[in-house]
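Severity: low
Component: inverse-folding endpoint
Summary: output formatting inconsistent between runs
Steps to reproduce: submit the following structure tokens with default settings.
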């Protein structure tokens, strides 16, 4: 992705429009065909593509910028993470809230361990220096990306346990088949899979 020199006020206006529409569309649960249709629509929209055209070098560069910059960050931004989080109007639970809900109020995030792609941290039982584990959060379609850090960790002989938290959305609940696959992966990889129910 080219490093376009988009003025901050233009970027802010575009991302505000994108994120407002994405929230209305329930973007997280749209299939790829619907997403493609919206990228095409946004490219032609004077308030989105029209504002970007003078800074990205041509119409053909609008969709890649939309997809690889703000929309790639959309889920993290909804959880209060990253540079685009200020443009979210409909927030999702933060990582702290998800940890408390799935692990219990006696778990805390270890300062300085936050990472992205996928969104993950180390967590510790409050008051204990020894009871730590990795915690990674994401949607089911990104499951392989959620599991990959644990696979790499295991291959290096690291011993911290892994908790893989899969979002279970109210609008599109996980299926019995998906959860069955998670159990098999859990046993095979030696990780723990938990679910965060999100309305």
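Observed output (run 2 of 3):
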């Amino acid at each position: 992705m080219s490093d376009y020199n988009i003025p901050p006020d233009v970027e802010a206006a575009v991302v505000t429009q994108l994120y407002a529409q994405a929230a209305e569309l329930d973007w997280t649960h749209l299939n790829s065909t619907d997403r493609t249709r919206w990228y095409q629509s946004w490219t032609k929209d004077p308030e989105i593509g029209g504002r970007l055209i003078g800074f990205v070098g041509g119409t053909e560069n609008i969709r890649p910028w939309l997809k690889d910059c703000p929309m790639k960050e959309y889920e993290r931004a909804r959880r209060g993470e990253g540079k685009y989080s200020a443009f979210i109007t409909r927030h999702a639970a933060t990582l702290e809230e998800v940890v408390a809900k799935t692990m219990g109020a006696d778990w805390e995030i270890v300062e300085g361990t936050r990472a992205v792609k996928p969104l993950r941290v180390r967590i510790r039982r409050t008051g204990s220096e020894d009871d730590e584990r990795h915690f990674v959060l994401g949607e089911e379609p990104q499951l392989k990306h959620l599991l990959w850090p644990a696979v790499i960790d295991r291959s290096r002989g690291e011993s911290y346990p892994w908790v893989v938290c899969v979002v279970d959305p109210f609008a599109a609940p996980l299926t019995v088949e998906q959860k069955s696959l998670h159990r098999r992966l859990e046993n095979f990889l030696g990780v723990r899979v938990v679910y965060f129910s999100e309305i």
